[in-house]
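WARN  no MSA supplied for this record, continuing single-sequence
INFO  ligand: protoporphyrin IX containing FE
INFO  echoing inputs
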Amino acid sequence: MHSAPFSVEVSVTSLAQENEYISNLDPLKADQLIQKVPFLNLKKDTIELVLLLVDIMPSMHEIHTFDKYQASAAIRDIGFLLGSLKRHQVEPVNIIPELEDKMNLLGDKSGLPPRDTLLHYTVWNPTDSRRRTYTGTQDELYLIDSVVVAMAPLVKCIILLRKLHLTPLNSPEFKAICQEIFTLFEKVIEGIVMARRKVSPSYFANELRFYFDPITLNNREYLGPGAVEMPMFVFDHLLWSSDCQDEEYRIFKETYLPYIHPEMRKVYHEFEDKSSLVSKVCRLADGQIEFNNMILDSLKSLSSCCRLLKSFRMPHKKIAEEAYAHTKKPELLSDKNEHIQRNHGSGGYSTDILTHILNLTNQKIEMLDLCISNFQAPDSGRDMSRN
Ligand code: HEM
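INFO  complex generated
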């Protein structure tokens, strides 16, 4: 943990402890009952799913006694029933109207929306025999694991990027932090490699993905726990996008902001309307600092950090495109509206958003690389200032 200039303190250790603590909780005494969910989903038994939901649902009085960790564990377990019912076209609140007040209170207590998020589904989901799933399939278990392996390293990288914002380019520490990010981010990429190897694209597109559909509460939709809720956009934000003017990407980031961990949200807000790292270093390299090799090393290391995003986004886009290529043809579907749903991710976006974000990432990498070559070009103004 570093001190002072930041208004927010985030500790990776405390987040890891929080994950373990919430995973171990079972405030609804649902450990056994929740294991029925995959079987009920296979049978499409919505009546039993509703009964199970009613069974585990805490009273308002109980919810008032919960702390934020118990509230989070309760939302996790209720969430498996919400997503399951929605997958079978049942809007939960239409069957259980008191759901709204209860989920609102649980959401308020946990500092998150009134339904389950990716955090509940993955890092707050217990392991082994207590693991909660919608289907119990290996594909789903691997999908959860692929996010779990990526999440903590991504959070560490974000915290390191914050530190980089305060580190002078002209110091060996800058390159050292970039190298740390580089090593950690390999784990994030590992998550994608695992999903590519272990999750069948057609099973994802035609089955798993529907458990992450939005549900209605408070007369609006709340998104389901898709991997799109990873704080990858916070990493982008600090590195290259806090001052990016692209409206589509700004809307994308703000759509998912409420669904990420409150600590990550604070980091996001801290850098809102501030220069990104790439813009900052480009401004510096563009005439404000004397050439030296240490700065050049720092700039090159930052460029390597940006390229990490490409190494994540290119294979991920491939997975997403492959999955959506496996969606059933509209003529094979009984409900034509399903076709529209099937071609969009859990956030309601098509895979075009992935191309768009990748293009923006590439533009920023090009901009940084141009700064680097100007910085070291022998016949530039910079070089003359060295003489
Ligand atoms: C079968 C596996 C997967 C498929 C088909 C898939 C598909 C998609 C789609 C269609 C989007 C667009 C947004 C939306 O959901 O509406 C998206 C976004 C995203 N997904 Fe996945 N995904 C998969 C696995 C993963 C995994 C394992 C991770 C992380 C370890 C991940 C991380 C992300 C992120 C960070 C975004 C936001 C866009 C970006 O930052 O580039 N996805 N995904």
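The chain has two domains: 13-136, 137-220+227-387.
INFO  checksum written, moving to next record
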